[in-house]
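Field reference: sequence -> structure
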Amino acid sequence: MLKDPVEARPTRRYVEKRETILDAAAMRFNRKGVRGTTLSDVAQDVGLSTNSITYYYRKKEDLVVACLLRTIDEMVGIAAQASELPTPGERVAGFIRLFFARLALTATGERPELMSFREIRTLPDSHAEVAFSAYNDMFRRIRQLLRERTPVDAAERSVLSARAHLLLSLATGAMVWIERYEPEDYPKVAESVIDLLLHGIGSRAARWQPTLDTAALLPCLDQPETTQQAFLRAATELLNEQGYRGASADRISARLNLTKGSFYHHNENKDDLIGACFDRMFDVIRSTQTLVENGSGTGWDKLCAVTRALVHYQFSSQGPLLRLTIYGALPEEMRKEKMLTMNRLSARFVRFLVQGMQDGSIRPLDQSIAALQINGMINAAVELRRWVRDASADNAADLFVRPLLMGILSPA
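Structure field:
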């Protein structure tokens, strides 16, 4: 017998408890990762038994999807508000202002955390299909903010998709670094991000560099790959796709068509291999920054060179670099150590910005926020192919680097 529609509606108490569970779960997933969180962890956070949690969400994956869908709904709402503004520039600015205002509500305790999208790929197929369907719809809505007109052809759609990925990545990336600012300063931070997105980084005299000698800046690409380097590449790919706990010795070995015994012949344990993945990434970034800094050219020339070279590496046979989103699920000691090194390397981008401001090739701007956006762009390039299928080492700079350095609405 079917329930009466009125009786089938959830009660207020049910809805309140469900929202409390989602609040606690999103915080847990952001801190410990999906695989590092159990239903019993969430139950303990909200003072319930595990059985009580399963009354609302039968499996952990159901809870993950519910948290993701709630965040996606909020992002869609923000995009919808921004879409009411008349021009692409105003819509981009509106989207950033509204999103940072939402982050401020989290910082002051008025609203719960938004869940990071970093581990959406770790979901099993049936759950991933639901999450990605909603995510793709959200992405299309954000892409529409950038449109001057409709319809657009395939080439224009590729450009818009790359720039929508940039906009979404830099916005959600702020969830990681925004806490270094006071909540009352979030509106000012938002204006700095808007200024960078709409006006780029170069001065009026700055010109996009059409060519780049990547071989000189990435000498590692000319070296043959050893077995150990192949393990590092495979582990990096799996870490980006499956997170820390999903990148098991079995999966890494299978990616290379090798046995688990071969894994332990070349590596002491998984954590040592993951640590080596970070060290390899740091070496690539550090050596490229140093080669560029010691070369000739203006600060703008050097910034163009280093960003293009690192994005090129993402699409090379030895790429990609590790996603920054992996940090949240690392063991605490490893996380602290690796984040410290990454923050130091990110800060090195400030030197190119300062040199450019001194020689007039880069316009006056907030150097610390600009460095964060540069780092975020390089990091997000690894997923560009998801939105632009023909993205490659040859066109990634024009598709993805140029919109940040020249302005997200600059002519393609």
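Note: The radius of gyration is 22 Å.
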